[in-house]
Amino acid sequence: MGQAVQGPELDAVFDTWWMEAMFDSVPGRARRIERTVAGRDLLRLPDTLEEE
After folding, report:
1. Dist CA 24 CA 30 (whole Å)
2. In CA terms, which of 3, 23, 28, 45 is 20 to 30 Å from 51?
3. What span, in angstroms and rounded, lies between the C-alpha atoms of 16 and 7?
4. Which pTM does this prediction carry?
5. DSSP labels, 8-43
6. In whole angstroms, how far apart are CA 14 and each of 6, 19, 21, 40, 48?
7. Calpha distance 21→38 (Å, rounded)
Protein backbone atom coordinates (compact mmCIF):
# COMPACT_ATOMS: atom_id res chain seq x y z
CA MET A 1 0.00 0.00 0.00
CA GLY A 2 2.93 2.31 0.50
CA GLN A 3 3.31 2.51 -3.28
CA ALA A 4 -0.39 2.60 -4.14
CA VAL A 5 -1.61 5.52 -6.18
CA GLN A 6 -4.55 7.49 -4.82
CA GLY A 7 -7.67 6.85 -6.87
CA PRO A 8 -10.83 4.74 -7.15
CA GLU A 9 -9.10 1.39 -6.58
CA LEU A 10 -7.33 2.49 -3.40
CA ASP A 11 -10.50 4.23 -2.20
CA ALA A 12 -12.39 0.94 -2.62
CA VAL A 13 -9.77 -0.89 -0.54
CA PHE A 14 -10.08 1.65 2.27
CA ASP A 15 -13.90 1.62 2.09
CA THR A 16 -13.94 -2.18 2.38
CA TRP A 17 -11.38 -2.17 5.19
CA TRP A 18 -13.33 0.47 7.14
CA MET A 19 -16.61 -1.39 6.72
CA GLU A 20 -15.04 -4.65 7.94
CA ALA A 21 -13.43 -2.87 10.90
CA MET A 22 -16.79 -1.39 11.92
CA PHE A 23 -18.57 -4.75 11.60
CA ASP A 24 -15.87 -6.41 13.72
CA SER A 25 -16.22 -3.75 16.42
CA VAL A 26 -19.67 -5.09 17.41
CA PRO A 27 -19.57 -8.38 19.36
CA GLY A 28 -21.38 -11.37 17.88
CA ARG A 29 -20.60 -10.81 14.21
CA ALA A 30 -20.11 -14.52 13.45
CA ARG A 31 -23.46 -15.36 15.04
CA ARG A 32 -25.23 -12.59 13.08
CA ILE A 33 -23.74 -13.88 9.82
CA GLU A 34 -24.81 -17.46 10.63
CA ARG A 35 -28.37 -16.32 11.39
CA THR A 36 -28.50 -14.26 8.20
CA VAL A 37 -27.31 -17.17 6.06
CA ALA A 38 -29.93 -19.36 7.76
CA GLY A 39 -32.63 -16.76 6.99
CA ARG A 40 -33.35 -15.91 10.63
CA ASP A 41 -34.00 -12.45 12.11
CA LEU A 42 -34.12 -10.79 8.70
CA LEU A 43 -35.72 -7.38 8.24
CA ARG A 44 -37.60 -6.34 5.14
CA LEU A 45 -36.28 -3.19 3.55
CA PRO A 46 -38.60 -0.77 1.79
CA ASP A 47 -39.03 -1.49 -1.93
CA THR A 48 -38.22 2.13 -2.71
CA LEU A 49 -36.60 4.94 -0.82
CA GLU A 50 -38.32 8.28 -0.76
CA GLU A 51 -36.18 11.20 -1.81
CA GLU A 52 -36.32 14.33 0.28
Report:
1. 9
2. 23
3. 14
4. 0.48
5. HHHHHHHHHHHHHHHHHTSTTHHHHHHHHHTT-S--
6. 11, 8, 10, 30, 29
7. 24
Q: Quote the CA–CA distance of 29 and 19 in Å, as a whole number.
A: 13
Alpha-carbon distance 35 to 41, whole Å? 7
In the chain, the amino acid numbered 38 is A
Query: What is the rounded distance in angstroms from the CA atom of residue 4 to the CA atom of residue 6?
Result: 6
**Per-residue pLDDT tens for 2-27?**
677 889 988 988 999 998 898 889 89
Q: Could you tell me the pLDDT band of residue 43, with boundaries at 50, 70 and 90?
A: confident
